[in-house]
Amino acid sequence: MPLLEQQAALIVELLSLEHKQDGYQLEVGLTRSGGFTRKVLLIDEFTYLQMNMLASFQGHRVRLSLYPKWDPFRRTYFSSLSKMKSTCSETLYFACSEAYVSQLLQLKELTFPPLEAGAVPAELSSPEPQQMEPLTRSAGTFRLARPIVLRCILFSLLFVLFFLRMDGTVFNSAEAHEDFTERKLSAHSSVPAAYVPVVDQASFQDAEAEAVPVPETGQVQEPEREAGSELDAESELGPEMEAEPGPGPEAESESELQEVQSPLVETLALDGSSYEYNLAKGYVALSFDDGPSKYTQEIVDILLAHGVAANFLFIGQNAQHYPQAVRYADEHGMPVGSHSWDHSDLTKNSSGENHNNLLRSVQVLEQNTGKPVTVFRPPYGAINGSVAAEAGKQKLKVLLWNRDPEDWKADTAEQITQYFYHTDPSGGIYLLHEKAVTVQALPAIIKYLKSKQLKFAIFR
User: Fold this and answer.
1) Predicted confidence (pLDDT) per residue in 25-65, tens digit
2) Residues 6+ apart with CB under 8 A from 69
């Protein structure tokens, strides 16, 4: 069994955005492996204005994406930030400059002091949300100089005219998928209108997915099928996975856990020493959040037909509505974990609220599986020392991810598969959701990963 390399994701939280006499700056909080530090970045006017055009951040926690992308149509870079409040999360997009992109790259290269042997991130001094200053903007933020306002209006009109085509169609921002690392950085000489792709519920991607060329053999695609249709008889079928009793009811002995029997699947044990794990090269893992749902059984059937397995992170409230789906996943050898009771931001809760939240979710899942639940993924990937400590008390191992196809906002299966074709899957833990387009894309995804001679990992 390969050892899991510990390389926790870097989380960047926006603390302030200000216009000062000597220029524009933003302050960020950096968290990795439970360690925390602050850093002030000097940014250009272009990026500042773009971020400032977004809705108010007051009362929200805001995370910056570390993965800007190149838009080949607008000839500019764009990035995003995620606003979290209560149970909602929203992604907002903005155009940015070469200088901003360069500073993001520098943030990813920062090193944090290594953890001492045997240390647990939950015990480190990670700041609580209430200890952080609320996100602020300077008093002069909304009193922009007249020339700047006129420039913004002028270029907004120009961009509207440019993207209204002769046939009356409007540019579709979903077409821009080229990674910024594949393009040469270019300077900006003007301030366009704010970048506004489609906004939906957000999930965070806090670890890098390396860009690689599309396979020359062509893009492996499956024809779209209606829910419940039979799998292609000519698809690569692996042996079905069989469940057999494992080692005891305690989290340490785990006697009743099933083991997946397949040459393509290997079960790995999380040691609880990190928020996130990177798989060794040659391995890949699929995980499905936000279930159970009406799609759970179909997802399990597709995995079984291809001789692979995946982790299912279920929401407690959903498990009450689809108890048969929980049992179906468990009975067919798919590890079932907790994704909280109600998919709320647990970092906003008190310790007592989080205790009840995690406990209720675990209880309803264990009632349906008859086995200990030991894997936990916090909603939105939002975690701090208090949440991690509570998870540890309930013998839950935290599992995040390092590959995010953002299937939650995809309109077609092809949009999801394109992400897989453009990233290096080896060592990746993929975050997926129980959606119709994900079900349609799943056979092609599995075929592509199997073509790379990868072994599928599941976590206990």
Assistant:
1) 989 988 876 677 888 999 998 898 888 888 677 778 888 98
2) 77, 78, 79, 176, 177, 178, 179, 180
